[in-house]
Design brief:
Radius of gyration: 26 Å
Number of helices: 10
Helix content: 25-40%
Distance between the termini: 83 Å
CATH class of the largest domain: Alpha Beta
Strand order of the largest sheet: 3-2-4-1-5
Number of domains: 2
Largest sheet: 5 strands, mixed
Structural class: alpha/beta
CATH architecture of the largest domain: 3-Layer(aba) Sandwich
CATH superfamily of the largest domain: Peptidoglycan recognition protein-like
Number of strands: 7
Shape: globular
CATH topology of the largest domain: Lysozyme-like
């Protein structure tokens, strides 16, 4: 009788241990495949180019002599590009980034609970930016670190998620000396294709922490002083005289690809205005743009 009472307990413990083991090793095959890919890539780096003589003067050979130097290093990321996943869970995103057919990845993914999952060494080239442009740089994958936030694009980001992001950005900025202006969004570099990380992303908060630029609100929204000396902020400056640079040129100075002007304006408004993103620039928007572009000079 005693055995019959103990057996269910032992069975439950066994199932629990088996489940824990499976959970621990859930990404074992992914990590094994990753190591294999890294090994193959490392092999390419270690490969010594053959000389013309070694290739029997093949028509494709160009090297007359090989002399190795020790004066080199790995690539240095110069941008951080922030995305939202447009999916419904961290697990779903990891699945997407580990299936070869998707051809998409990211260096980091941050869950709604603030969990940071690193998927690629910072020095390796992730496939997160796709076709895009920022200033004169047309290969952002080669110059950037990609960070994906678990968010479907239709909801605010969680506070713990943003706190984890700030910790990660602080580390990346310190480690690689990434300029403040070079913390940007996917929509910034691909205006005609992307809208992430959405209007809900707290760009102003990031700028206050030193990641990205923001406009001077006291300049854009001046104050009126009443007779009783009470300062009243002007929340809408559309009626104020405008003395701004040509908006398209200002957008180009900031870094936007203006080949599609409407898309560039939408991306600018998505980042810095965060409302009425499909409408044309208002006078207030132009004042913000005028204040901003000077920071990027």
């Amino acid at each position: 009788m005693r055995f019959h009472r103990i057996f269910p307990v032992l069975l439950l413990v066994g199932f629990s241990l088996a489940f824990a083991s499976c959970t621990k090793d859930i990404y074992r095959q992914n990590n094994k495949a990753h190591k294999k890919s890294v090994k193959q890539t490392t092999g390419l780096i270690q490969e010594i180019p053959k000389t013309k003589a070694e290739l029997d003067y093949d028509t494709l050979s160009i090297t007359d002599e090989w002399v190795g130097t020790t004066n080199f290093s790995l690539r240095k990321p110069n941008y951080v590009i922030i995305h939202h996943t447009a999916q419904d869970s961290l697990v779903q995103t990891i699945q997407t980034f580990t299936v070869p057919r998707t051809q998409v990845s990211s260096h980091y993914v941050i869950g709604r609970d603030g969990k940071i999952v690193q998927m690629l060494n910072d020095y390796l080239r992730s496939w997160h930016a796709g076709k895009g442009r920022w200033g004169n740089d047309t290969d952002l994958n080669s110059a950037s670190i990609g960070i994906e936030l678990d968010n479907n694009g239709r909801e605010p980001f969680t506070s713990v998620q943003i706190e984890s992001l700030l910790v990660l950005l602080e580390r990346l900025k310190w480690k690689y000396g990434i300029p403040t202006a070079n913390f940007i969004g996917h929509s910034d570099i691909a205006p005609s294709r992307k809208t992430d990380p959405s209007i809900y992303f707290p760009w102003k908060r990031l700028a206050e922490e030193g990641f990205g630029l923001w406009y001077d609100e006291e300049v854009v929204f001046p104050v009126l002083t009443a007779q009783d000396s009470i300062a009243i902020p002007i929340e809408n400056t559309d009626s104020l005289p405008s003395n701004t640079l040509d908006p398209v040129l200002a957008l180009r100075i900031i870094g936007y690809d203006v080949s599609d002007e409407k898309a560039a304006i939408r991306s600018f408004k998505l980042h810095f205005i965060q409302r009425d993103i499909e409408s044309a620039l208002t006078e207030t928007d132009k004042r913000i743009l005028d204040n901003l572009y000077k920071k990027y000079l």
